């Protein structure tokens, strides 16, 4: 058992995906966890999973983590601050500025509150989807404000580091603009693209490969939750969507007359700008990297992918990313293994020597 930086107990309000994942991660480090939720069933399931125990009279938590829907987060945080005057309170909602402003307007003791946001999740919610390692290696924003001291906020830092996440400090306003760009607008774009599939011919959908699945994966997210998130962060999302609309208009104009002078150049420039943008996305551990892809053919048999991953580990090459391409009815899938460029040739040679077929 890994020793924790926290002393506990930690009270988790909201035993859904994020709350239960926080609880499981803390329990794996021996921290006492107290569970509370509007749904007794969620509490019972989370407790059965080993995430903690139900709340009881006399509980005196060191830290309270509020993991409830965004439209009730401020109200719940205010209630927790009042109920536990010796506790530090944080929340994990995906918007920050509005919650802080609402708490200040209510007269809540924000000297014991600091908002935070782990950029981790899954398309499915609920305690059964929770994982103790959900936050490992993921950014976790602490939205600092002047009313709380560094010493008091240290408990939140300890929580984040205990769960294996990477601590990122931002103001609430910086956070909300940032997540609008890297999370909220991509959700809208993904959903709008996936909507095109409703009336699409089955023959066209049968051609779907990994590219379209990557673009539309998050379109499977919970609409009710996203209505709340987008409503709470509407202004920056609106501004970015207007800019995206302008980008699309340039594409549309060029494609209306693709033979016109300069049309193909404009299309090429827009596509090249996308190359430049995606190259700026941080790689593993937050470092800007461009990886090399080794494509391995994997037979459609039980255990083959696990064997490939195990042998990559035996070779001693660090796997940076992995994508799978497999169409129904095919006996072979393609594993796109991303590694640092200097390791690609050695990995290809050693996998081939072990009998793997390298594509391309």
Automatic annotation (TrEMBL):
<dbReference type="GO" id="GO:0008977">
    <property type="term" value="F:prephenate dehydrogenase (NAD+) activity"/>
</dbReference>
<dbReference type="InterPro" id="IPR046825">
    <property type="entry name" value="PDH_C"/>
</dbReference>
<keyword id="KW-0560">Oxidoreductase</keyword>
<dbReference type="InterPro" id="IPR045865">
    <property type="entry name" value="ACT-like_dom_sf"/>
</dbReference>
<keyword id="KW-0827">Tyrosine biosynthesis</keyword>
<dbReference type="InterPro" id="IPR036291">
    <property type="entry name" value="NAD(P)-bd_dom_sf"/>
</dbReference>
<keyword id="KW-0028">Amino-acid biosynthesis</keyword>
<keyword id="KW-0057">Aromatic amino acid biosynthesis</keyword>
<comment type="similarity">
    <text>Belongs to the prephenate/arogenate dehydrogenase family.</text>
</comment>
<dbReference type="GO" id="GO:0070403">
    <property type="term" value="F:NAD+ binding"/>
</dbReference>
<dbReference type="Pfam" id="PF20463">
    <property type="entry name" value="PDH_C"/>
</dbReference>
<feature type="domain" description="Prephenate/arogenate dehydrogenase">
    <location>
        <begin position="8"/>
        <end position="285"/>
    </location>
</feature>
<dbReference type="GO" id="GO:0006571">
    <property type="term" value="P:tyrosine biosynthetic process"/>
</dbReference>
<dbReference type="GO" id="GO:0004665">
    <property type="term" value="F:prephenate dehydrogenase (NADP+) activity"/>
</dbReference>
<keyword id="KW-0520">NAD</keyword>
<protein>
    <recommendedName>
        <fullName>Prephenate dehydrogenase</fullName>
        <ecNumber>1.3.1.12</ecNumber>
    </recommendedName>
</protein>
<dbReference type="InterPro" id="IPR008927">
    <property type="entry name" value="6-PGluconate_DH-like_C_sf"/>
</dbReference>
<comment type="pathway">
    <text>Amino-acid biosynthesis; L-tyrosine biosynthesis; (4-hydroxyphenyl)pyruvate from prephenate (NAD(+) route): step 1/1.</text>
</comment>
<dbReference type="InterPro" id="IPR050812">
    <property type="entry name" value="Preph/Arog_dehydrog"/>
</dbReference>
<dbReference type="Pfam" id="PF02153">
    <property type="entry name" value="PDH_N"/>
</dbReference>
<dbReference type="InterPro" id="IPR003099">
    <property type="entry name" value="Prephen_DH"/>
</dbReference>
<feature type="domain" description="ACT">
    <location>
        <begin position="293"/>
        <end position="360"/>
    </location>
</feature>
<dbReference type="InterPro" id="IPR002912">
    <property type="entry name" value="ACT_dom"/>
</dbReference>
<dbReference type="InterPro" id="IPR046826">
    <property type="entry name" value="PDH_N"/>
</dbReference>
